[in-house]
From TrEMBL:
<dbReference type="InterPro" id="IPR000836">
    <property type="entry name" value="PRTase_dom"/>
</dbReference>
<keyword id="KW-0328">Glycosyltransferase</keyword>
<dbReference type="GO" id="GO:0016757">
    <property type="term" value="F:glycosyltransferase activity"/>
</dbReference>
<protein>
    <recommendedName>
        <fullName>Hypoxanthine phosphoribosyltransferase</fullName>
        <ecNumber>2.4.2.8</ecNumber>
    </recommendedName>
</protein>
<dbReference type="InterPro" id="IPR005904">
    <property type="entry name" value="Hxn_phspho_trans"/>
</dbReference>
<dbReference type="Pfam" id="PF00156">
    <property type="entry name" value="Pribosyltran"/>
</dbReference>
<dbReference type="InterPro" id="IPR050408">
    <property type="entry name" value="HGPRT"/>
</dbReference>
<keyword id="KW-0547">Nucleotide-binding</keyword>
<dbReference type="InterPro" id="IPR029057">
    <property type="entry name" value="PRTase-like"/>
</dbReference>
<keyword id="KW-0963">Cytoplasm</keyword>
<comment type="pathway">
    <text>Purine metabolism; IMP biosynthesis via salvage pathway; IMP from hypoxanthine: step 1/1.</text>
</comment>
<comment type="similarity">
    <text>Belongs to the purine/pyrimidine phosphoribosyltransferase family.</text>
</comment>
<keyword id="KW-0479">Metal-binding</keyword>
<keyword id="KW-0808">Transferase</keyword>
<keyword id="KW-0660">Purine salvage</keyword>
<feature type="domain" description="Phosphoribosyltransferase">
    <location>
        <begin position="15"/>
        <end position="162"/>
    </location>
</feature>
<keyword id="KW-0460">Magnesium</keyword>
Length: 179
């Protein structure tokens, strides 16, 4: 696939991400302490690194499940129509659910997914996003937990791709086109 040439500038280092995840995991621990019915739901594919690091900081009995919603495809444009490409394996009725997302941008994806999951009557439903771009919001949605608020830049790394590349970078970087 041909791409315009670009470089990646570090925006949030691996160390800073790890420190923030430690803080967030303490808050989530306080929120869900005492429950034995928590399911942590990762939104594929961008959250796979975040959920892996987050659950390993959580000293709680949890299950892990995944859901895939369509978003950008391979372009840099957000699509307002959200489709479920892969649903959860398990039922969530009566369970505690924590949805884990990479970025909240326009808000359409997490807004749609949380409404869908709420319709299945979980006991408790919370969401966490590593990154939030509040300036881009098109629907009134706010994640319960947020790692970092960032400006309107296209980011990659730590699970997040540009045309399926760069997910394996251990930090969050911003894409800068050259020439
Ligand atoms: P929303 O529905 O909130 O507009 O978009 C959420 C999804 O868009 C994110 O889960 C992510 O997949 C994608 N997205 C939003 N901002 C960025 C970005 O800066 N870089 C990349 N690679 N994807 C993004
Ligand atoms: Mg995503
Ligand atoms: Mg993507």
């Amino acid at each position: 696939m041909s791409q315009r040439p670009y470089v990646i500038d570090t925006m949030i280092s691996a160390k800073t991400i790890a420190a923030r995840i430690e803080e967030l995991s303490r808050e989530i621990h306080d929120e869900f302490e005492g429950t034995d019915k928590l399911i942590v739901v990762g939104l594929l594919r961008g959250s796979f690194v975040f959920i892996a690091d987050l659950v390993r900081e959580l000293d709680l009995p949890i299950e892990v499940d995944f859901l895939e919603a369509s978003s950008y495809g391979d372009s840099m444009q957000s699509s307002r129509e959200v489709r479920i490409l892969k649903d959860l394996r398990g039922a969530i009725e009566g369970r505690d659910v924590l949805v884990v997302e990479d970025i909240v941008d326009t808000g359409h994806t997490l807004n749609h997914v949380t409404h869908l999951l709420a319709s299945r009557n979980p006991a408790r439903l919370k969401s966490i996003a590593l990154l939030d771009k509040p300036s881009r919001r098109e629907v009134d949605f706010r994640s319960d937990y947020i790692g970092f608020e960032i400006p309107d830049e296209f980011v990659v790394g730590y699970g997040i791709d540009y045309a399926q590349r760069n997910r394996n970078l251990p930090f969050i970087g911003k894409v800068r086109f050259v020439e």
